[in-house]
Amino acid sequence: MQTLSKQVAPADWSDVEIVRRIVNGEAQALEQLMRRYNRPLYRTARSIVKDDAEAEDVLQEAYLLAFRNIGKFRGDAMLRTWLTRIVINEAIARSRKTARRAKVIQLDGDAAWENEAAEASMNEATPEQPETSVMRAEARRMLERHIDALPDVFRTVFVLRALEEMSVEETASCLAIPEATVRTRFFRARGLLREALAREIDFVFEEAFAFDGARCDRIVAGVLERFKNPQADRA
To answer: Among 116, 111, 205, which residue's Cα sits nearest to residue 154?
Structure first.
């Protein structure tokens, strides 16, 4: 009796399998890749542009660039690292083009990190209330504000290391900086945030910059539509 081979669900596809299917033109693989990496890549983009809508635009452009060049991915680095580099480059280019900041982001070198953000004072911790979800939402918003206030070179390292739990080696590879610089910037960023957030910081990490279903669906739909109509996208 012939044994039927077990079908692997799209959610269980390996990164290598997803890349292979994208190269073969499978739209389902495009969607699977985006849903797998939307959250970390969105957080990375937002850590640079500091604006929700702008981060969505960056992510869509980065995906289109990645999909058009997916055949060049050779697996020398992890797929997440490869995608993160594309997002970082697109976010930096967008920031420079729109002149949203007074200074151009410097992701390499050590001079910029000497300019620390002004340390904002924080109100005393509020006693625990029955409305836990409301309190956590407010704490999350507070964390986001303080992350936004970090100097540029600290903020991106912090997002990659603390929120996305990238290793020092992977973060250094994404940002093209020495591992020692990653450690230093992360240590200083964490110190600034701990002083500002005190006890609240520990339980709001997971919910910071939440990537809700609506935003995820909007980005997937937008990229798939543009991918299906490349001529319209270039017009």
So the answer is: 116
